[in-house]
Amino acid sequence: MTGSRPPLFVRLYQTAGAWGLPSTCASCIAAQALLRSTGLPLSIISGAAPGMTTAHTLPVAVFLRGDDPSAHGSPDLLQEGAAGGGGGGKRGGGVPPPPSLGMGAAAPPAADTSVAVGVAGIVAALAARGVDVDAGLSPVMRAEAAAFAALAARDWAPARTAEYWVDRANYEDLLHTVLLPSSPHPWPLNRLAVAGRRRAAVAAVAATLSPPLGAALFTDAGAVAGAPPRAALTARAAGAAAALAARLGGGGGGGTFYRSTTSPLTSLDAVVYGELAAVLYAPLPANGLRAVIAAHPTLVAFCAAVRGAHFGDPTEGGGAGADRVVHEANLAAYTSASRLVYERSQRRVEELDNGGSAAAKGASSTLSEEEREHARGNRWFVGAAVAAFGAYLLWGDEIEFVGFG
To answer: Cβ-count burial of 289 within 10 angstroms (0-12 exposed, 13-18 middle, 19+ buried)?
Structure first.
């Protein structure tokens, strides 16, 4: 099928990544790991925010047919000869991935463009298209997998969320490393949007605690590591980690819960990997949960195996299946002002990589002509907005709109 497009591919919208992680959102990591393991052509758009979706949650996967008009502006997602297919390796000559566990020998049935929200929604959407990630699991195994996924969501996820959003030191690191540089909004909207996400996250964590502990979580004293609310969350997370480690150690799956590490992941594998990797590989200042994971070598080995099989070495920018995974864009680059913020943040990262040398600092402080032009335009825009608002405050009552009222 030279010159044809894949019969089905997936575009995944997720939050931005950092520290070698594909995303700082545990569910986004889980979704990307799951989709990578299926062998389906995948394109990734990072830098999305939950408020950009009608469901106010991420990740979001868009399933498209190869002949869908909206797909024609995207890069070709699968090269000929990739993933074991034949051909000369030319771009634009995509072929379907070979059948794998959970996929039929024929191509997935054609389906209308559709959107799946969250990991559970993506699993259901894949199953509806002939890609059952839990294929081969008995009814008892499926019930067990659902129970362990619920355990991770109930007892581990709140503690992980608290480390990211409640702990002040961790939040400040996350804010300046990921949230502000990847925000599609200009200042001060970027700050306001992030503050709203933090309030929602703290409220969600507090709702999992008893009323006294939940109320204490909103105070500075109760938010620090070791305080009663955080201690209660960590204790629950430790219990969940012990249960997952016990099941993983006796599962006989050769690395994952039910299969070998080179096989497509099950939904439980993806969920657990997302939750653990978001903590294990994030160098946050106060990362107490990393010690909880490190106490269970089976969990550490599980994360390393999944990362190596489906993501590869993050420092090499590739990884397993890199020939069929396209990082289309960071949403911060969709607006010029946010693109400049993103580029400047990248320069700051380069400064750190270069040891903060004077040459690096001098290079980062030099603005291009395009950047200066954007800065001038932004100043004019802000000045006009302030003037208009001031005029409204002073003379708003005297303005008459002819023909209205």
So the answer is: buried
Q: DSSP secondary-structure letter at 7?
A: S
Q: What is the DSSP letter of 45?
A: E
Whole-number Å distance between alpha carbons of 9 and 274 = 22
Q: Summarize the confidence of residues 336-345 as an average pLDDT.
A: 45
Contact at 8 Å (CB) between 242 and 257? no
* pTM as predicted: 0.69
- Tell me the pLDDT tens digit for each residue of 259-292: 876 678 999 999 999 999 999 999 988 889 999 9
Ramachandran bin of 39, using left for φ above 0, alpha for ψ from -120 to 50, beta for the remaining angles? left
Contact 123, 149 (CB under 8 A): no
Q: What does DSSP say about strands 42-46 and 60-64: parallel, antiparallel, or unpaired?
A: unpaired
Residues 142, 123: Cα–Cα separation, whole Å: 13
Integer Cα distance of 28 and 14 in angstroms: 6
356 vs 169 pLDDT, higher one: 169
